[in-house]
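Researcher: Go.
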Amino acid sequence: MIKYKKKIVFSAIQPSGNATLGNYLGAIKNWRDMQDEYDCIFALADLHAITVRQKPKELKENVIRNYALFIACGIEPEKCNFFIQSHVTAHSQLAWILNCHTQIGELSRMTQFKDKSKQHTENINAGLFTYPCLMAADILLYDTNFVPVGRDQKQHVEIARNIAQRFNSTYGETFILPEPLIPKLGAKIMSLKNPEKKMSKSSLDEDSTIFILDKPDLIIKKIKRAVTDSESSVKFTENETTGINNLIVIYSCITNKTFLEIEIEFENKGYGFFKNKVAEAIIEKFSSIQKKFDLLIKDKDFLEKCQKESTRKASEKASITLSRIYEKIGL
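Model: Structure:
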């Protein structure tokens, strides 16, 4: 295994649909903040996206839009390696090898498979079932030390570790065992209309999700319609799934204020006043991102140059790992 000066972080997000406030606070913002401290490798996981039927033209457009949007959010190609998963063929190659070192029982226990099987009963495909093997390949290809995940994604890091340990015990030390890196705040932003469910880009209720590219008036409307609870004070409670807790977490993540500072700021102010401030904070944060995005999405040459260079760097690193694995198993 190659020894790197900095610890390596790998993280990926699907490019299907438009990125949400939850994506920004739970992933993109953390990616941006890690770029100086770690050797960061980030990907748009378009191969993962096709476990659910996609319209080809829309998928291709979403990949380009999200690539530009993430750069607008602060992902700097000169500081990290930000590539498109399908452009690096080693991901698919290693996924097949890991398929052969993963037990059916392990895969059948994965929460995401159970959940997506219920959502897409007409298309319970093998890719949906072996999804964790591709995710493990994504992580293990780069000698990853840390994987930033939300609490609901920790299981995927655990199965990647199990697969890596099984491989290491069979063929000798090959893979580094990755550790989950779970942010203390913002790891899971909930739906504005149903705070017991995660904010989702695929929600049928348009008011439940804020998208990074939403216009100010739409953000205000969605926040005003967000559920709170039967109380009237802005206080964080022990019940994590209340609407007011969700809004406090969102405001805290955007402003970097503590829960106590927020409670003091909005003492005796009421939910209406608080919601206006939450909306203002989101609008201010997304305004500069939207302006950068509008410029980037028109600069096709720049985006293509970034993609080609990132693919080259990722492929070089991944091919070294893959060659090592091929030799171990006799290919």
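Model: The CA atoms of residues 42 and 82 lie 5 Å apart.
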